[in-house]
TrEMBL record:
Lineage, opening ranks: Bacteria, Pseudomonadati, Acidobacteriota, Terriglobia, Terriglobales
Record's catalysed reaction(s): 2 cob(II)alamin + reduced [electron-transfer flavoprotein] + 2 ATP = 2 adenosylcob(III)alamin + 2 triphosphate + oxidized [electron-transfer flavoprotein] + 3 H(+); 2 cob(II)yrinate a,c diamide + reduced [electron-transfer flavoprotein] + 2 ATP = 2 adenosylcob(III)yrinate a,c-diamide + 2 triphosphate + oxidized [electron-transfer flavoprotein] + 3 H(+)
Organism: Candidatus Korobacter versatilis
CDD domains, sorted: CobA_ACA (cd00561)
Protein's gene: cobO
PANTHER family named in the record: CORRINOID ADENOSYLTRANSFERASE
Enzyme class: transferase
Pathway(s) of this molecule: Cofactor biosynthesis; adenosylcobalamin biosynthesis; adenosylcobalamin from cob(II)yrinate a,c-diamide: step 2/7
UniProt keywords, alphabetically: Transferase
A Pfam family the protein falls into: CobA_CobO_BtuR
Membership in a protein family: Belongs to the Cob(I)alamin adenosyltransferase family.
Protein name from the UniProt record: corrinoid adenosyltransferase
Gene Ontology MF, one: corrinoid adenosyltransferase activity
Amino acid sequence: MSETRRGLVIVNTGPGKGKTTAAMGTALRAVGNGLRVLMLQFLKGSWHYGELDAVAAFGDKFVMKQMGRGFVKVGGAETDPEDVKLVEAAWAEAEQAILSGEWDLIILDEINYAISYKMLGAEKVADVLKRKPEQVHVILTGRNAHPSIVEIADTVTEMREVKHAYQKGIMAQRGIEY
Ligand code: ATP
Ligand code: MG
């Protein structure tokens, strides 16, 4: 295998657990190889996630930003315009970050949800992915990845749920779920 650097578009989707955490695992691997990583969390905010504190230790080599406000009410007229504004602002930052070439890996966490809830147009995202600088890697997470994004992506993984502790009534565990 040659060592030629080629930026990949990676999609982590499907109903099973592991989409965001797999992206963070890749980020750790990237940082260890000297790559600079930006993770923008499209819908998350307000809740406290352990990874925010852990990542702070990496300084400007691995930056994680919560762009939402944590709880999003969605579905047609139910979608709060305030949340749409936050998604639009998150996308503006993501677009700038991808096209700037300043980051080696950009993770757009939960962006697939924002697209499937029609808070963000899939065509806008697809257009930027097609125009991205050659060497930039992008990971998009969230269920129901849009077909046009899947089409552009190089690597797509669908997490399949075999079982989840939640179904047994076990609540989200600190350090595992958040
Ligand atoms: P993780 O952040 O643990 O990798 P994820 O990104 O695959 O999960 P999301 O769809 O973003 O999953 O869901 C967010 C939250 O729901 C997380 O706390 C996650 O652990 C939990 N979760 C994920 N999959 C399931 C499932 N199949 N049933 C119940 N809860 C789930
Ligand atoms: Mg997730």
